[in-house]
Amino acid sequence: ASRISEMLLNPGKAFTYNGSNYTYPKVRMIYNAGNNFMSHQQNLNELIRALQVVDTVVVQDVWWCSSARWADIVLPAASTLERNDISSGGTYSIDKIFAMKKVIEPLGESLDDFEIFRRLAALCGVDYAFTEGLTQMDYVKKAYEGSSAAKVKPFDKFWEDGMVHL
């Protein structure tokens, strides 16, 4: 994230990352989901100048943050209260997985990330390739079942209880 200005302002420039050599591409569009890229910059004035070289900036975010304010297109994303998910956050020992159950329906025009990407995939004609016929909740269950928590408690019991201790 800290090299975004350098990348935008220097297409074709060689750089080294983790011991490998790469070349900055000519970027025409930025699609940013899940973070405020403006908040990671050491020099915001340089980033604002660099953003002038791209044709389109799309931001998918819950908040009207600075990245959203600079975007050409804003896709309003649902908050954690507006979607089902799982989390291992909240404890320093990381010894629990929590069921993050939807509390309210998404407000306004916001959609959960899965639905935003599903709709974009449908527009591109690759809906099934993206979803594999699964729903957002199917992927929550699949993620849980791929974790060590599934050995402790089956998904349905975990979802009912709201937590599993590892």
Describe the structure in your own words.
By secondary structure, the protein is α/β, with parallel strands linked by helices. Helices cover 31% and strands 20% of the residues. The protein is built from seven helices and eight strands; from the N terminus they run H-E-E-E-H-E-H-E-E-E-H-H-H-H-E. It has helices at 4-9, 44-51, 66-70, 113-123, 127-131, 136-145, 155-161, and strands spanning 14-17, 20-23, 29-33, 56-61, 73-76, 85-87, 96-100, 163-165. The strands form three sheets. A three-stranded parallel beta sheet has the order 3-4-5. A three-stranded antiparallel beta sheet has the order 6-7-8. The chain has a two-stranded antiparallel sheet with strand order 1-2. The radius of gyration is 19 Å and the shape is globular. The two termini are 34 Å apart. The mean pLDDT is 94.
Largest sheet: 3 strands, parallel
Which structural class do the helices and strands define?
alpha/beta
Mean pLDDT: 94
**Helical residue percent band:** 25-40%
Cα gyration radius (Å):
19 Å
Please write the string of helix (H) and strand (E) elements.
Answer: HEEEHEHEEEHHHHE
Count of helix runs: 7
Distance between the terminal alpha carbons, to the nearest Å? 34 Å
Overall number of strands: 8
Shape, per Cα inertia axes: globular
- Percent of residues in β-strands: 15-25%
Low-confidence blocks of residues: none
Strand order across the largest sheet: 3-4-5
